[in-house]
Amino acid sequence: MLIAIPGLTLFEWFQFALCGLLLGMAKTGLSGTGLMVVPIMAAIFGGRVSTGIVLPMLIIADIFAVKYYNRHADWKHVLRLIPWAFAGILFGWLFGNAINDTQFNIAIAVLVITGIVLMIWSDLHPIKHAVPDHWLLAAFLGIAGGFTSMIGNAAGPIFSLYLLSMHLPKNRFIGTGAWFYFVLNLMKTPFHIFSWKTISIQSLTLDLLIAPAIFAGAFTGIFIVKLIPEKAYRIFIIVSTFIASFFLF
What we know:
Blueprint: H1 10-27, H2 33-45, H3 47-69, H4 75-97, H5 101-124, H6 135-152, H7 156-165, H8 170-195, H9 201-227, H10 230-245
Helix pairs in contact: 1-2, 1-3, 1-9, 2-3, 2-5, 2-10, 3-8, 3-9, 4-6, 4-8, 5-7, 5-10, 6-7
């Protein structure tokens, strides 16, 4: 039986639309905004249900990002990470089957806060201190990223850490990430449809209704990246996400 999706208040619709905007921005260069979406959506719909609603939203945003940054993708890194990430997805699926909704919320909160710590760490330790290009790095971060992606759609900082360690310039960083997340999210979809049953006609209808906000966010992200210093913006996102995560405990 499919998990029921509650009716939304006007304020929750506003939060939902804001999440679509933030996801679109995250996929076009403002990495970090996507993390803010995770606790907000979990607070509205519940942890497990929210992952199935967010996933198609991510895929919509991925399509836009892939279209815009397609020529910049470095497929060597995409293909290196995918098998390990799929193993992580399997671990996340097994873990998700073994816990209840309250524990699921706590798991999401912990993963988001861990992601924020990783984001801060990567900011304080620039690319010159990056770890070596080794298959063990791809294995560890791929599995960890697949796990966090399956549980809470919160793998952005983990994969960003890997891509930063590969010394990728800005456009290749965004383009490679765009294709990787697109493939990763497609791999997760069958688990949500057939096992967790968190994707339904009702949830897809909500996703389609919010699609304009996602596209608006994508264009906004492209515009903002060119105008606003990312460091100041990232500080705001990190603090806001950190606070929002505690509402899941």
